[in-house]
What we know:
CATH topology of the domain at 61-175: Chitinase A, domain 3
Radius of gyration: 26 Å
CATH class of the domain at 61-175: Alpha Beta
Shape: elongated
CATH architecture of the domain at 61-175: Roll
Helix content: 25-40%
Number of strands: 7
Order of helices and strands: HHEEEEEHEE
Strand content: 15-25%
Amino acid sequence: MRCFVLFAVILFFTSCGDDPIKVRPELDWSQEDSTNLNKELAIEEQLDIRLFLEQHKDWELTTTGSGLQYYIYEHGAVDAVCSPKPGDIAEIEYVVRLLDGTVCYQTADDEYEEFNVDNSQIESGVQEGIKKMNIGDRAKLIIPSHLGHGLIGDMDKIPPLNTLIVDVYLIGIQL
């Protein structure tokens, strides 16, 4: 027993020191460093989008103030001129791809998905693009990462910092 007490006392005194224990190293990272990194990432993404669009010169794209680019390549019936508004339920078929063509998500054949416009977990780029469409329109949406899944991806099939190409068909609207 004495050995144990003596060992504990020796351990106690030898473990105490003047140097504080650093739990994690100090990082020399400023807000300016974060801003510069974000600018670099945005420039790289824009270059990737431009390279992609070089292969799709026939797309007649419109760019919004947010950075969304869309191309309505098939218009619906003339008598179906009706665009979804916030609060409406949009019925869509879609295919979500990465710039390299990898399919991440898509609706099953002969099925569609419903979502509440501006009140759902659907990417803000898709929300914005849907509001530019009329019933029966088919469009390609180029969604930069800041309008998609951003810095972390969707933790499943969409990696971080990836531009999405969404092919969407607006089937209908429930008011």
